[in-house]
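// run 5 | inverse folding | seed 20
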């Protein structure tokens, strides 16, 4: 086995130099031999790459409060919240299901959550009911556009305040385009909330 002795301190070095890859994992610097992976264009590998690209794009704008739930869920699993988000949601994409935006949530979720088109040009109607323990909690609705090639757009959240009344209309949407709507109960808006309920979701396309 080859040994490498350095006469200087590496604080943070990441990249490839020749056939050596420098990286960092959980604060520890390491290096290994670079081994190129064969490019496969099988349907399965193409699906894996597509899922990864879509989920990386979905993670980048994810609100810190939602990212923290993944970090908490990954604690003790020898992986980051980001890794857990990608791995779990790849399964959902394979099944054609909406992705999960959060993990390790608290409290009870909304019940009877439905998303249906309103009359043409009037957006979507979101109906829901509160669990018995939900008094005084904010209703947060996140809306995500799913475009024609199944790309995942950023989720746009709206805080409808405490004890919002069902149903709620989501407007200014493109007709004929599918949208996923996520519903949360929280003890504040998304920037300040320290407690989020498990998410519920539904999808529909507004009429033309």
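// decoded
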């Amino acid at each position: 086995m080859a040994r490498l002795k350095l006469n200087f301190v590496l604080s943070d070095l990441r990249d490839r130099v020749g056939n050596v890859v420098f990286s960092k994992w959980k604060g520890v610097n390491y290096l290994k031999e670079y081994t190129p992976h064969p490019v496969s264009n099988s349907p399965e590998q193409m699906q894996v790459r597509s899922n990864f690209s879509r989920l990386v794009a979905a993670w980048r704008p994810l609100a810190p409060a939602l990212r923290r739930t993944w970090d908490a869920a990954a604690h003790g699993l020898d992986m980051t919240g980001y890794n857990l988000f990608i791995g779990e949601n790849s399964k959902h994409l394979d099944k054609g299901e909406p992705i999960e935006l959060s993990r390790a949530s608290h409290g009870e979720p909304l019940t009877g959550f439905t998303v249906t088109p309103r009359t043409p040009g009037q957006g979507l109607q979101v109906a829901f009911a509160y669990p018995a323990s939900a008094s005084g909690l904010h209703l947060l609705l996140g809306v995500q556009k799913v475009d024609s090639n199944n790309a995942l757009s950023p989720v746009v959240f709206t805080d409808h305040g405490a004890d919002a009344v069902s149903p709620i209309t989501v407007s200014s949407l493109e007709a004929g385009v599918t949208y996923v709507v996520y519903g949360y109960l929280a003890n504040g808006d998304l920037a300040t909330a320290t407690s989020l309920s498990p998410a519920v979701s539904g999808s529909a396309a507004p009429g033309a």
